[in-house]
Amino acid sequence: MKEKIKRLEEKIEVYREKILEIKTEVGKVIVGNEVLIDKFLAVLLSGGHVLLEGVPGLAKTLLGKTLASSMSLSFSRIQFTPDLLPADITGTLIFDPKGMNFVVKKGPIFANFVLADEVNRAPAKVQSALLEAMQELQVTIGDKTYKIQKPFFVVATQNPIEQEGTYPLPEAQIDRFMAKLLVDYPEKHEEIEILKRMGGVSEPEARPVISKEEILLTQKMVREVHIDDRLLKYITDIVDATRRPEKYGVKIKEYIMYGASPRGSLYLTLAAKARAFFDGRGYVVPDDIKWMARDVLRHRIILSYEAEAEEVTQDQLIATILSTVKIP
User: Fold this and answer.
1) Pairing between strand 71-72 and 210-211?
2) Of 7, 168, 184, 307, which has the most beta carbons under 10 Å away?
3) Domain 2-215, classified CATH 3.30.360.10, yes or no
4) Span 225-324: which CATH code?
5) pTM (2 decimals)?
6) Where in the chain is the domain with CATH 3.40.50.300?
7) Distance in angstroms (rounded) separating the CA atoms of residues 56 and 79
8) Of 218, 220, 199, 252, which Cα lies nearest the Cα of 71?
9) Where in the chain does DSSP place strands (E)?
10) Where, residue-wise, is CATH 1.10.8.80 in the chain?
């Protein structure tokens, strides 16, 4: 096993340089948010999708577009609005008068990198069209089903402060996002740097530094990272503690209506492997699991009325679980 891990680490070092190049390019445009960008890339390398939440003006859309610019991938942006239709995302059949038949017009979902801007502004049937494609990696138009080419990465943004004219994502469907990342206000010195960069004559741009094939190879390499059975048990203990907290001595049962699904365990495993990849390791350590636990689990825990009344958050509950569940 040691020899296998050593060979893997030699391969990791080569492709890890490409990821560092992406961070450099993104850093030309995005000020600060280094941990957020690392987690963003961890989702990409795990083959998942990400939900970005933050108040207006925090560069959520710019972050998604900049990351797309640093990769040689086909890109599409969908601005979600209340009058959007499912066919506006997936595509539709259009009648061709010359051929006297219907031809397929594929929608913007058929891209490698899809930015779903303000996803909570569209009604449930439109959200379902996007989320179905995310899960199945295919779209049915008419009587034919079309595969979506890999890599396929959806970045959805939403604003948490506006309620009028918005449609909250259904809890059962939001589970399809690997991680929910929270975008916070910049520090004062970072905001000054933003003004310098974005208030000048020309705005900085990121250039593509990694190909589609290299991304697919990197995703495969992340999955090859070794994780010990004891750490797999640790992951399942953490996730199970969101469902049966009393079993692990965590006194938060009254605050949780529903815990995380098995998909949470899978994504937490992949996130830990991605973190190990970033560090150039071919094996996972406990800190890798903790690193993204909040981001992977926060949108998978449904709070009870008691939690809402006492203003207890998912992040607080996850922190309690992490501090209580025994590390192997």
Assistant:
1) parallel
2) 307
3) no
4) 1.10.8.80
5) 0.87
6) 2-215
7) 15
8) 218
9) 50-53, 71-72, 75-79, 91-96, 101-106, 113-117, 138-141, 144-147, 153-158, 179-182, 210-211, 256-258, 302-303
10) 225-324
